[in-house]
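Summary of Year 1 activities. Much of the first year was spent building the evaluation harness for sequence design. The harness presents a backbone, in tokenized form, and records the residue chosen at every position. We chose the following record to illustrate the format because it has been used consistently in internal testing since the harness was completed.
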């Protein structure tokens, strides 16, 4: 029904063209060749007050009404951000039980960020956009770009790490790739949603420098450069007001300073007050409550904050029509750009190309963290023992709203068996037992991981089998259960759960040829790192997990991922927890560390991280040569070229990520020791060299001046520090800003 009216309009256009009448015959708002703004205003002029209010709130769990009388279709949203969510019942979270809504799960966004490759991001956007389009969705609820502030945040796996520049560069191609399909992205969760436990009540405050320099840039890039057509207001409060109706964040910054014309969609249940929602910048309210049908009310959607209560205020003059029209215009723009747009591609679902993309992105995001010669798997290996629950557990399921119903999921064990081939004996031992729960959104995914043996028996079995194997591969980490990598909860500690540290230590004692693979979206403590010869950060890899992992284990794909966040040695070392600060935080929540988030904090405090931001090895080695600047100085508004040679000095092909950090030698305000302002991933054959080029403009040298409320680049001396991780600077070049 949704597309019928629009199809009629398109047919009218076609008919007009055939009969030598190229001019569109219908009303202006239906003429796709006309200016968008003129169409939107024309539609608004034809809408009744009731119709206007109707488009500002949900009509089901994931859809909002159009204007049937005018042929304006409904809008359909879906989660996001790693694949298209299964259909749910009209007014419930439970799955609808359709048989045609299984999809491809793509790697988690932490993995995408770890590729440090905007081309991977473009590919990701394209394929997930195609899946969303095929499922007839108009808005994809993602990607997520909240900054990684603490390793305990349960939703870090859905985001792009700790650095504003990295996440900005990675989010833009994702947005563009999705939207090329006529599907809007809804970048989330805007903003400061950095914990889950008290996500509805935590009231964040922070300096403007931290807000503008750390927490806003990725959102700004997504809307101003990526052109995202919608954004999701987050659950938390900022300076005493919920973000979903926060005048400063939504009206002043997002719509004002950034000049954005898109629609703010509330997080599901993020709106709490009609008057604040009207004046505070909320455009489209979702999820306020869920009893529309199940509790037997005729239509609870009329009770939304932006429904009847808004209508009453408009009728009695407490609310003005100009504000209403602005909201309607934003929702109509979103609608015209997506649902009411002809000539959209059809999209595709579960195509081999999509599986290939999932595998490529996954393999390119896996990070090799340590390797004392155990990897890549040698042809001499004739027996492999795989240990660990994550080698077999379905990890596309769970974690909250990003949980997926996949057409297929290749487990690490399957991937290893396939790649090892018939000549290699592959055995499995459980090693530890986590939770056996596999029910999601009311559906049992049909995997039974119940275990009756105790920890000692599982370790004894694994060690006995390990002793005789040519290679042991442990696959563990976190999972998508509550208090791990999971929405609505945070982790309770930075340690690995289920006694895995003891299993890994015992395995290291039983067989020195041990590779550990961690599946997680967060940093964990690594007490056994010195005893373990090889360590890989495997992330949540989605449908092609086992294939992507085997590609890297065997070296079919050279590992080239780099950490998008720091692994602290201990939780107390990290900025949100330093000095025993309370986390999670229910009420007033001041971000004392300010701009010193991630590696900026570790640099500032002189604390050595366990594994640094930007770190990751390959099976080959690289040398970064002397950097050169095109000039000794630049003027405000101009740019400088910095070139640096990089050579593959090893025996195998591989890719290196050359990272450029800016150091301000003298400043009138506190500045981080260095900040990432450029990176390039280069693929090199053995012995091959390349010249990497960076362009540095004054924006890369600026800080946010709170008093003047503007970005300032202070004249003086700077250094570009270039290396292959934030703690491995190979070369630097000095220059000045005149
Ligand atoms: C989550 C969002 C999600 C929405 C709809 C909320 O609970 O925070 O990320 O898009 O639900 O499922």
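For this record, the design step produced the sequence shown next.
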């Amino acid at each position: 029904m949704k597309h019928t009216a629009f199809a009629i309009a398109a047919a009218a256009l076609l008919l007009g063209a055939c009969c030598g009448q190229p001019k569109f015959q219908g009303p202006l708002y239906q003429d796709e060749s006309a200016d968008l703004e003129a169409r939107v205003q024309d539609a608004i002029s034809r809408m009744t007050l009731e119709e206007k209010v109707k488009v500002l709130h949900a009509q089901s769990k994931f859809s909002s009404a159009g204007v049937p009388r005018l042929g304006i279709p409904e809008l359909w949203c879906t989660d996001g951000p790693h694949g298209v969510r299964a259909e749910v019942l009209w007014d419930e979270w439970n799955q609808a039980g359709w048989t045609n809504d299984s999809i491809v799960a793509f790697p988690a966004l932490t993995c995408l960020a770890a590729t440090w490759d905007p081309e991977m991001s473009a590919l990701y956007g394209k394929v997930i956009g195609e899946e969303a389009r095929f499922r007839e969705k108009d808005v994809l609820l993602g990607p997520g770009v909240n900054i990684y502030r603490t390793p305990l945040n349960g939703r870090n796996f859905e985001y792009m790490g700790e650095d504003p520049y990295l996440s900005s560069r990675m989010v833009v191609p994702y947005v563009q790739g999705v939207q090329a399909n006529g599907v809007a992205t809804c970048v989330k969760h805007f903003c400061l949603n950095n914990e889950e436990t008290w996500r509805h009540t935590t009231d964040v405050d922070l300096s403007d420098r931290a807000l503008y320099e750390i927490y806003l840039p990725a959102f700004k890039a997504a809307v101003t450069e990526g052109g995202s057509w919608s954004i999701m207001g987050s659950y938390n409060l900022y300076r005493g007001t919920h973000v979903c109706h926060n005048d400063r964040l939504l009206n002043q910054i997002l719509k004002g300073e950034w000049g954005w014309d898109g629609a703010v969609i509330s997080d599901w249940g993020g709106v709490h007050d009609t008057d604040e929602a009207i004046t505070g910048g909320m455009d489209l309210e979702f999820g306020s409550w869920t009893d529309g049908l199940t509790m037997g009310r005729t239509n609870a959607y009329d009770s939304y904050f932006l429904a009847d209560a808004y209508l009453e205020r408009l009728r009695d003059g407490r609310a003005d029509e100009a504000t209403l029209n602005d909201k309607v215009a934003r929702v109509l723009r979103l609608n015209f750009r997506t649902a009411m747009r002809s000539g959209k591609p059809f999209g595709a679902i579960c195509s081999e190309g999509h599986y290939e993309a999932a595998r490529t992105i996954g393999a390119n995001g896996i990070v090799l963290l340590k390797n004392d010669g155990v990897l890549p798997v040698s042809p001499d290996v004739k027996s492999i023992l795989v240990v660990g629950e994550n080698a077999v557990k379905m990890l596309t399921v769970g974690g909250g709203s990003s949980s997926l119903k996949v057409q297929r999921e290749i487990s690490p064990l399957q991937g290893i068996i396939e790649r090892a081939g018939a000549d290699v004996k592959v055995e499995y031992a459980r090693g530890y037992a986590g939770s056996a729960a596999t029910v999601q959104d009311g559906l049992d995914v049909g995997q039974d991981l119940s275990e009756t043996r105790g920890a000692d028996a599982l370790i004894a079995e694994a060690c006995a089998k390990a002793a005789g194997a040519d290679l042991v591969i442990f696959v563990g980490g976190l999972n998508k259960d509550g208090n791990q990598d999971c929405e609505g909860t945070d982790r309770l500690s930075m340690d690995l759960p289920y006694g895995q540290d003891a299993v890994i230590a015992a395995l290291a004692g039983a067989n020195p040829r041990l590779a550990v693979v961690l599946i997680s979206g967060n940093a964990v403590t690594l007490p056994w790192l010195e005893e373990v010869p090889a360590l890989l950060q495997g992330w949540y890899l989605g449908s092609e997990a086992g294939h992507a992992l085997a590609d890297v284990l065997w070296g079919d794909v050279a590992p080239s991922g780099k950490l998008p966040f720091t692994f602290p040695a201990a939780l107390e070392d990290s900025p949100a927890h330093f000095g025993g600060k309370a986390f999670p935080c229910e009420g007033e929540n001041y971000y004392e560390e300010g701009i010193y988030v991630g590696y900026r904090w570790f640099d500032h405090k002189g604390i050595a991280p366990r594994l640094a931001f930007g770190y990751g090895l390959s099976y080959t080695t690289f040398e970064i040569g002397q950097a050169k600047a095109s000039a000794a100085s630049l003027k405000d508004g101009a740019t400088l070229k910095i070139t640096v040679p990089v050579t593959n000095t090893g025996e195998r092909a591989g890719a290196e990520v050359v990272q450029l950090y800016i150091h301000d030698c003298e400043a009138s305000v506190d500045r981080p020791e260095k900040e990432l302002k450029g990176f390039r991933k280069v693929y090199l054959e053995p012995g091959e060299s390349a010249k990497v080029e960076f362009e540095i403009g004054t924006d890369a040298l600026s800080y946010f001046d709170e008093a003047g409320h503007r970005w300032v680049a202070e004249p003086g001396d700077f250094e570009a520090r270039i290396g292959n991780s934030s703690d491995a600077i190979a070369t630097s070049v000095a220059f000045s800003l005149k």
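Residues 79-80, 141, 188, 267-268, 401 surround beta-D-glucopyranose (CB under 6 Å). Quantitative recovery figures across the full test set are reported in Table 2.
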